[in-house]
Amino acid sequence: MKANDRAADETSATGRRSRGRPALPVARIITTALQIVDEDGGEALSMRTLAQRLDSSTATLYRHFANRTVLVARVVDHVFGEVDLAPDVFATMNWDEACRTVAEAMFDALGRHRNVAPLLVGQIPIGPNALILRERCLARLLGSGFPPPVAARAYATLARFVLGFAIQLAGPAGQTDDGQASTLFHGLDPSEFPATLTVADSLPVPLADEFTFGLELIINGLRRFRVDG
């Protein structure tokens, strides 16, 4: 998809620059910024750090991005561009399959860039790739009998559900020790935690299983809001 990046590939720094310093395509700036986020987290991304990584200057970056917030928005939208949904195939899906496909594809994309999800907290993605993704999902919902207010809320709920789970992927590797958690659950006092002990063999629930289960709950819940015909 990456609607924004196609145009960016042909855009390079303009104006005066240091002698011998090559122009910087916007696409390269964005992918390098994403590399910094992937490697060191969102807090590590600054105009100065990015300029150093590119062997360029902050002045060059500011010709393209008014501030760090704008840069971060472009990085986030680049990741949304990795949510690859073939329009012709997606348009033929039932609404529930479409919702499931969008949510899983978004989760996979954010899973490949685990430090990006925290950058989305408190923001509404409005880059071209995010808008295309929203448009396609809303079109399937509206065309399947969901009233506009419900379709809008359904997509927002799906997106925030995905974000909530994706943020959990951003923690340090090995942060949660399932073996230790299982031992703790099985060792609880049965007089105080009888219910927890009853389900202890199923705890902790793997994150991927939680995601799939929760997604099905949302989709099943949406069925009651659909207007047939």
Explain the overall architecture.
There is one protein chain. The chain has 2 domains: 78 residues, Arc Repressor Mutant, subunit A, CATH 1.10.10; 139 residues, Tetracycline Repressor, domain 2 (Orthogonal Bundle). Helices cover 59% and strands 0% of the residues. About 6% of the residues have low confidence. The chain has 229 residues and is an all-alpha fold. This is AcrR family transcriptional regulator.
What key attributes describe this structure?
mainly alpha, flat, 229 residues, Tetracycline Repressor, domain 2, transcription cis-regulatory region binding, Arc Repressor Mutant, subunit A
Question: What does this entry show, briefly?
Answer:
The chain has 229 residues and is mainly α. Helix content is 59%, strand content 0%. The model is unreliable at 5-18 (pLDDT under 50).
List the helices and strands and how they pair.
Layout: H1 3-8, H2 26-40, H3 47-54, H4 58-62, H5 68-80, H6 87-90, H7 95-112, H8 128-142, H9 148-168, H10 178-186, H11 194-198, H12 207-222
